Amino acid sequence: MHVTIIGAGLGGLTLARVLHVHGIPADVYEAEASAEARMQGGMLDIHDYNGQLAVEAAGLVAEFRGLVLEGRQAMRILDHNGTLLFEKTDDGTGGRPEVLRADLRRMLLDALPAGTVHWGHKATGARTLADGRHEVAFDGGRTVVTDLLAGADGAWSKVRPLLTAVTPEYVGEAFVETYLYDADTRHPATAAAVGGGSMAANGATAAESISAHRESGDTLHAYVALTRPLDWFAAVDWTDPAAAAARIAAEFDGWAPELTALITDADTAPVLRPHHTLPVGLRWDRVPGVTLVGDAAHLTAPNGEGANLAMLDGAELAQALAAHPGDVEAALAEYEEAMFTRSANPVDEAVLLESLFGDGEVPQELFDLMQGREQAS
User: Fold this and answer.
1) Beta partners for 125?
2) Which helix (H) or strand (E) holds 220?
3) Signal sequence span per UniProt (predicted)?
């Protein structure tokens, strides 16, 4: 058995690592030129009921624990005036330890045999050949043919069309991401508002919100959420960072300056992240020798679960293949049924809040503020 994986994100790399643990070779093809080709996003809370199970299956628990940033499970809820409504400290007992996405990806890469990942291979399409095998085409005319193909290539997967014609749709909301560096000294009021972990603040409606996370040291990573049509965002001049920041900040007129500073005082150009989703409960008929993991299979708007579910998908697919060494189709059917069942049951926001705030009752005002406002993990 040999597995071809398209995409070296967390789902694809977890799949490759757990396959390696079970002695099954794999090749991963990734569009990026190298592991350092771009920023890998911010903080991820890796949950004890899904993401950490994948880490355990990968045999990397000790390495994972070494990446955890202490204190980052702290949470602050503010109103748009900067008034503190709720605060939860991190006593080290929570089940959602925080790590940097880039560190987690590097941990998985370092745990793979040299040469497993083939960088600079941007997939342009895939097709099923007459003999039942699958061919993936890459930029530059390169191709690879495989008996067993796993698409871990995200929202705009080039493998997905082998299984379904369904494509992602815009959900009506987008994040604008920014960073503030050396915040404790250069932006002390904003650093105090965010605190030692994460912060979320809503306005009078859920159409605008600002969330932020403290990453390593005193770096603040902000997610400015706006419910607007794509045409509205298209009218913003993103080629002019100062003008774009001013346009976004104008939507938060009257908010506390320590909050809007996450937009106006950012040390990076604002980056637009529109949210798309696949239909909840999406299924496809079994196609021999091909399947999907992560966002390629069950893309949703950010809800704090995406990276965790991608890793769990990868681990469970690898475990199913290892459990059925002589019957790949049985393995894929077993994996897909579990994945379909899981993705057909959207994350319950009340359950998410309980996991964030413990077993105590979550006040209604906090539920109203937080629903749909999980970080983009």
Assistant:
1) 137
2) strand 220-227
3) none
User: What are the tens digits of pLDDT across the range 146-198?
Assistant: 999 999 999 999 999 999 999 999 999 999 999 999 999 999 999 999 999 99
> How many angstroms from the chain centroid is the CA of residue 215?
16
Tell me the CB-side half-sphere exposure of residue 205, using CA atoms within 13 A: 6
Q: How far apart are CA 366 and CA 359, in angstroms?
A: 15
Give the tens place of pLDDT for each residue, 114-145.
999 999 999 999 999 999 999 999 999 999 99
Q: Which residues of 286-318 are buried (b: 16+ CB within 10 A; e: fewer)?
A: ebebbbbbbbbbbbbbbbbbbbbbbbbbbbbbb
Q: What is the pLDDT of residues 24-77, one digit of tens each?
A: 999 999 999 998 887 777 889 999 999 999 999 999 999 999 999 988 889 999
State which amino acid sits at residue 231: D
Question: H helices within 82-240, ranges in order?
Answer: 101-110, 183-186, 188-194, 230-234
Using one digit for the tens of pLDDT, what is the confidence trace for 219-269? 999 999 999 999 999 999 999 999 999 999 999 999 999 999 999 999 999
Rounded to whole angstroms, how far apart are CA atoms 76 and 305? 20
Three-class DSSP category at 210: strand
Report yes or no: 201 and 211 within 8 Å, Cβ to Cβ. yes
